[in-house]
């Protein structure tokens, strides 16, 4: 990721825009993209309960939503654009969204993991029916269907690593980055399904109706990403 200095923000946003971000890594890792065009967010979602944050550019505000909700806000036009992980976009389906830029942030992978003492390869070979816990039902369903593995999927909303430790599931489908969460819970990654990074997503109608306002920001995001 490289940064450059370009035009003053007052010159570049010609209509009111709303950017949807989730707090944590997406918020933190999006800040350098805004800094590229001289914009800073006024407020910190880690310490503030405010969900609408102004920025140093009067025509840009940030809304703070759950990571899984970012595509929904953008799809319905409640936000003009946003940043969402490919994992979240795969589950959402991408309807109504234009996905122009891979920002190459929040990099990880979505994988199958199982307890160290579970012979996953053998279970698959023998055609066993596996119980798999995940919040990524769509991705998991497609992955196992493509392999011809029969699975019962159990929907969870977090802490997937716990499920095999207490007998809820044989395996999980979850995000892996450093691998430390798996190691801490004596799980091993048995299959990598897909590399994940975050994308800029834009409401398709906003792209047409607010193109002049959005384009300089899209250009700046593209410059920083590449
Ligand atoms: N350990 C990780 N390392 C790198 N990127 C990650 C990691 N975990 C998640 N991500 C990426 O960052 C995105 C946001 O993750 P984050 O942990 O902030 O939200 P979340 O808790 O998964 O979402 P929600 O609050 O909706 O359940 C994920 O969708 C994924 O693309
Ligand atoms: O391989 P690792 O580096 O351990 O990262 C993987 C963990 O990160 C994600 O969780 P979450 O976003 O809740 O965890 P984090 O914010 O603490 O990374 C994911 O659901 C894993 O639990």
UniProtKB/TrEMBL annotation:
<keyword id="KW-0547">Nucleotide-binding</keyword>
<comment type="pathway">
    <text>Amino-acid biosynthesis; L-histidine biosynthesis; L-histidine from 5-phospho-alpha-D-ribose 1-diphosphate: step 1/9.</text>
</comment>
<keyword id="KW-0067">ATP-binding</keyword>
<protein>
    <recommendedName>
        <fullName>ATP phosphoribosyltransferase</fullName>
        <ecNumber>2.4.2.17</ecNumber>
    </recommendedName>
</protein>
<comment type="subunit">
    <text>Heteromultimer composed of HisG and HisZ subunits.</text>
</comment>
<dbReference type="InterPro" id="IPR018198">
    <property type="entry name" value="ATP_PRibTrfase_CS"/>
</dbReference>
<dbReference type="GO" id="GO:0000105">
    <property type="term" value="P:L-histidine biosynthetic process"/>
</dbReference>
<dbReference type="GO" id="GO:0005524">
    <property type="term" value="F:ATP binding"/>
</dbReference>
<dbReference type="InterPro" id="IPR001348">
    <property type="entry name" value="ATP_PRibTrfase_HisG"/>
</dbReference>
<keyword id="KW-0808">Transferase</keyword>
<keyword id="KW-0028">Amino-acid biosynthesis</keyword>
<comment type="similarity">
    <text>Belongs to the ATP phosphoribosyltransferase family. Short subfamily.</text>
</comment>
<dbReference type="InterPro" id="IPR024893">
    <property type="entry name" value="ATP_PRibTrfase_HisG_short"/>
</dbReference>
<dbReference type="GO" id="GO:0003879">
    <property type="term" value="F:ATP phosphoribosyltransferase activity"/>
</dbReference>
<comment type="function">
    <text>Catalyzes the condensation of ATP and 5-phosphoribose 1-diphosphate to form N'-(5'-phosphoribosyl)-ATP (PR-ATP). Has a crucial role in the pathway because the rate of histidine biosynthesis seems to be controlled primarily by regulation of HisG enzymatic activity.</text>
</comment>
<keyword id="KW-0368">Histidine biosynthesis</keyword>
<keyword id="KW-0328">Glycosyltransferase</keyword>
<keyword id="KW-0963">Cytoplasm</keyword>
<feature type="domain" description="ATP phosphoribosyltransferase catalytic">
    <location>
        <begin position="66"/>
        <end position="221"/>
    </location>
</feature>
<dbReference type="GO" id="GO:0005737">
    <property type="term" value="C:cytoplasm"/>
</dbReference>
<dbReference type="InterPro" id="IPR013820">
    <property type="entry name" value="ATP_PRibTrfase_cat"/>
</dbReference>
<dbReference type="Pfam" id="PF01634">
    <property type="entry name" value="HisG"/>
</dbReference>
């Amino acid at each position: 990721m490289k940064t450059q200095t370009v035009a003053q923000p007052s010159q570049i946003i010609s209509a009111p825009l709303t950017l949807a971000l989730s707090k944590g890594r997406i918020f933190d890792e999006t800040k350098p993209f805004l800094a590229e065009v001289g914009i800073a967010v006024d407020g910190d979602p880690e310490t503030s309960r405010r969900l609408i944050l102004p920025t140093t550019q009067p025509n840009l505000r940030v809304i703070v939503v759950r990571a899984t909700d970012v595509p929904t806000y953008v799809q319905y036009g409640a936000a003009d654009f946003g940043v969402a992980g490919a994992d979240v976009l795969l589950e959402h389906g991408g309807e109504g969204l234009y996905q122009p830029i891979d920002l190459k942030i929040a990099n990880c992978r979505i994988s199958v993991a199982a307890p160290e003492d579970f012979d996953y390869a053998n279970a698959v070979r023998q055609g066993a029916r596996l119980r798999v816990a995940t919040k990524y039902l769509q991705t998991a369903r497609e992955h196992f269907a493509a392999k011809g593995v029969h699975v019962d999927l159990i929907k969870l909303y977090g802490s997937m690593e716990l499920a095999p430790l207490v007998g809820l599931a044989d395996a999980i489908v979850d995000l892996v980055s450093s691998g430390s969460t798996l190691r801490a819970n004596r799980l091993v990654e048995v299959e990598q399904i897909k590399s994940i990074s975050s994308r800029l997503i834009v409401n398709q109608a906003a792209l047409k109706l607010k193109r002049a306002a959005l384009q300089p920001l899209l250009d700046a995001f593209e410059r920083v990403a590449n």
